[in-house]
């Protein structure tokens, strides 16, 4: 687990964060003078999902709002990360959108309280460079994703349709995780698999890119900042503090990607140069965001429906904008009234 929090911020970052944080008042249950200590869970924590969390943790951006994130607990993706959130005494985390819909589409127990990973990067699928039989999506017959109800699960259903490929010719294989998918690929058990972006940066001679999700979809809600209904109601200040710190971290990454890359490299053990390439690429296409983006939700919901699921979210209950940080998009998916957060209903 990565735990350092202290650190000085460059002047440009301080200015950017000051603009976002102005007027922030998390609430009495998140007191900067006596911070609450919690753990969070993040899907595939060695991937780009963890970067804003790591930056906010090390740079003290959660702590300034009254919360210390002690441990970032790695999830395995999809419903496995959801179980970590619900069963591991962890109050909040970044969880895949499809797993939330499958678990609680009506929002009876869960609340999506903040943005998260809202672009399709780095959902890229690679073949072995030595595999001469695979050169495009039309050649794929065995396609690995991580786990059911993960973002990669949804995309392996959605992308063939968008590419005009006959999906009936593709066998989809649940690998169990990103690392496991890499192992299957290297063993020759699948044609393509999701490769960690930092691994692809470090080993370009070993893999060739076959399907890049950003080629087919511009916005795609991979995962969201999520908690339970009960925790949101009893600890609203903590939830607001997490959102404020996350949003400030996104601004910090954009203002100083080198500092973020050093943090990420230290956490993953990879070199700073590769980490910086990943950070800069992700930040340049606005992969992370603290607010709500209906376009990303629509694309992700299309992936859920491509799986044959009949789970249609009650967007106005499941998504709760009252905890969002200042200055982010509050546009709700669906046709929702955001004027009264405590009593929202469909117009």
TrEMBL record:
Domain SsuA/THI5-like per the UniProt entry, residue ranges: 49-260
Coiled coil spans: none
Keywords associated with the record: Signal
Signal peptide: 1-23
Pfam families attached to this UniProt entry: NMT1
Keyword Glycosyltransferase set for record: no
Name under which the protein is recorded: NitT/TauT family transport system substrate-binding protein
Source organism of this protein record: Rhodococcoides kyotonense
């Amino acid at each position: 687990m990565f735990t350092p929090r202290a650190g000085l911020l460059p002047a440009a970052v301080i200015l950017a964060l000051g603009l976002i944080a102005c007027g922030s008042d998390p609430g009495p249950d998140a007191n900067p003078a006596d911070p609450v200590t919690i753990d969070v869970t993040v899907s595939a924590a060695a991937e780009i999902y963890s970067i804003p969390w790591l930056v906010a943790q090390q740079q003290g951006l959660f702590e300034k709002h009254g919360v210390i994130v002690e441990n970032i607990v790695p999830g395995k993706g999809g419903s496995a990360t959801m179980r970590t959130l619900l069963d591991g005494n962890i109050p909040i985390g970044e969880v895949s959108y499809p797993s939330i819909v499958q678990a609680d589409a009506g929002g009876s127990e869960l609340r999506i309280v903040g943005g998260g990973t809202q672009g399709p990067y780095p959902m890229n699928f690679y073949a072995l460079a030595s595999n001469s039989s695979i050169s495009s999506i039309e050649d794929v017959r065995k396609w690995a994703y991580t786990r059911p109800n993960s973002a990669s699960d949804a995309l392996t259903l959605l992308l063939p349709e968008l590419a005009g490929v006959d999906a009936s010719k593709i066998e989809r294989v649940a690998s169990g995780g990103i690392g496991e998918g890499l192992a299957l690929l290297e063993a020759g058990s699948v044609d393509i698999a999701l490769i960690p972006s930092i691994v692809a940066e470090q080993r370009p001679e070993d893999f060739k890119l076959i399907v890049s999700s950003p080629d087919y979809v511009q916005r795609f809600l991979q995962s969201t900042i999520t908690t339970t209904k009960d925790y949101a109601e009893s600890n609203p200040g903590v939830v607001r503090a997490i959102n404020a710190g996350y949003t400030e971290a996104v601004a910090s990454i954009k203002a100083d990607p080198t500092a973020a890359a050093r943090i990420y490299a230290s956490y993953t053990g990879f070199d700073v140069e590769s980490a910086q390439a990943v950070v800069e690429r992700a930040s340049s296409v606005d992969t992370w965001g603290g607010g709500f983006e209906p376009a990303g939700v629509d694309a992700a919901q299309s992936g859920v429906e491509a799986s044959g699921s009949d789970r249609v979210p009650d967007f106005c209950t499941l998504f709760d904008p009252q905890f969002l940080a200042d200055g982010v998009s509050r546009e709700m998916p669906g046709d929702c009234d955001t004027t009264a957060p405590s009593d929202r209903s469909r117009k």
